[in-house]
Amino acid sequence: MKENHNKECFQCGIPITGKSLRYDIGNGQVEDFCCFGCYLIYKTTGLRGEEGNAVAFLGKFGFGYFLAMLVFMLSTYLYGAHMTPDDPQAKQFTTIIKYVILVLATPVMLLLGIPILKNSFSRHNWLNFNTDTLIAIGAFSAYFLSVYSVFTDKPSIYFETATMILVLVTFGRYLETSSRVKASNFMKELMKLAPDKATVIRDGKEIEIPVDDVKVGDTVLVKTGEKIPADGIVVEGNAHVDESMLTGENKPVLKQKGSEVYAGTINTDGFLKIKVNKPASEWTLNKFIQMMKEIRNSKAPISRITDTVAAWFLPVMLTLAAGAFAYWYMEEGFEKALIVSMSVLLISCPCAFSIGAPLALWIGLSEAFREGIVIKGADILEKLASVKKVFFDKTGTITERFLMVHRVKAKDEETIKKACALEKLSQHPLAFSLNLYCRQKGFDTSNYKVEDFKTRYGYGVEGKVNGEHLFVGNKKFVEKHGLQIPEELQKLEKQAEKDAEIPVFIFNKKKVLGLITFAQKIKDEAPIAIRALKKLKMKLAVLTGDTPYFAKIIKEKLGIDEVKAGLLPEDKIKEIEKAQKQGLVVAMVGDGINDAPALSKADIGIAMGCGTDITKESADVSLISDDLRKIPLMFLLAKKVRRVIYTNIFWAFIYNIIGIGLALTGKLNPIFAALAMVLSSAFVIGNSVRVKNW
Ligand code: ADP
Ligand code: MG
What we know:
By secondary structure, this protein is α+β, with helices and mostly antiparallel strands. The strands form five sheets. Strands 12-24-23-22-13-20-21 form a seven-stranded mixed beta sheet, with helices on both faces.
């Protein structure tokens, strides 16, 4: 997250780009809203409280709409009346109708016009124009001109224009906002995952308490079908738990004594007693929610551009409107001047500019999250669309994270145990796999003492185990220490390389003590994912610290031409730099642990298999699962979002150019200008929501 804006809309929760609107929501409480529509929605739906007020407001809006329609219908009678100007009876009737229209139009101005008027003057700096200023000037000048005409019996009556503009504008904003609310539903869904009650044991009794009161150390009971209310460790019972909302894994996971469980996941079949081990702020689900909030506040460069456009738009349009007024006043008099400048003000509403980008980006970010792809900012989503080259780490990325220990050759069992004890501190997939092997063999290393543990990136690990300085790592590591590999182990190593296995040596400062080989497997979905990426015209490359033998297999199996083997972490960085120097936007996919520097170096670092650890620092994108297919999916989504934003901006631009042209030349009725504005907002919204069916 490069830049944070801490203001978000009180109603929809979407970050406010540009200036916020501040409305009094009762009791003197003033809140920020992103648009008038959000304020409307807040008032009508009463979300965040105040139901009564809401109903009243909905009534106001409905009433205003009804009156505006009447005004409109009666006004069409007035148009007709002009054709028979000589009939005195008709003239009398027309006058009555004019007064009726005045009476009907006035409450509409009060109900729908006053809120807009208020907002346009609520700024401390009166030069600080907003769209409401334009609409208020337009609608109220039409209204007052009409009132003047009624009393002086002049024909210029524009009540229908004034009221229809207000109704259309209000409707347009309502539309705009309901789409934003839809877009922000995702946040609410996420929050709804958490149950609000928990059954805990206090003083030997089972009691139900609000989740907020659950404390570290509490024992929580979860029955079949219930949601787990807190993060903790199972102390009794077993059950299959549906964790799909957090891990993207569809199969329920067996949880038994000692397993970790997470708030918001569902106990599908058993009974669990859980000891809460973390405060609520550190529960995975809450960290997800917190993170989404931060992501939502990030801003993409494209939004900065559209914000600037929107900010310039108003003063420019106001000047144009004033110019048009002056010109038409001289040409055809006050009335025409008023109508033309009103049309100019209405057509130039920059809503399409200001909502086009943030709306599409936010929907994109939410859709990605649903797929278990955590993109940490709108700027990153935008940049993803321009990626031209993707580098992959190998172990755990192209190949399965779990490797099978195949051959073990060592002086004695003790050597293997010591290596295991050392690897317990490493986060490399090799270390994890070796430990699983040891557990299966029943080796107990729990009372082994490890000191001075160090990771040697690209080589292996070292440290003192029970006082003996040990090294576990690849051939390069051995050579670096100037040791000879015994002939027997050399033979085994050759064999391992031929079988495309990873050979790992155990040695001390004096000699090589043993060898373990790990069988690795390319992920089943890798060919599909790579094919999809190629279709997207991405350049692909694999960077690995492993031997060239396996590199060849990757080349053949996946059809990736560029596979570089035997690389140290700094070599991987050099490869990335080389591509960047060619002007390519580069993404690097890895596990985010031993390849963190490479992930940081790339324009976009993507960490796979983060599980519940999505906050990984080095990564711009965290994938909850290990599934490689998420990579092309992510690029596809980013491109779709970009396309939507560009079409939004393009059409908003075209619409404004044509509309302003028509308005300036006096060919656009203000009602049509208002209608066009509503339609353009509706288009931008509809277009942005398309991101959902990518
Ligand atoms: P890659 O992900 O491409 O396999 P790494 O940089 O993660 O590359 O690892 C390179 C090599 O370093 C591994 O193939 C292995 O031989 C060695 N290595 C790294 N970490 C360890 C470890 N914890 N234990 C043993 N060997 C390791
Ligand atoms: Mg690696």
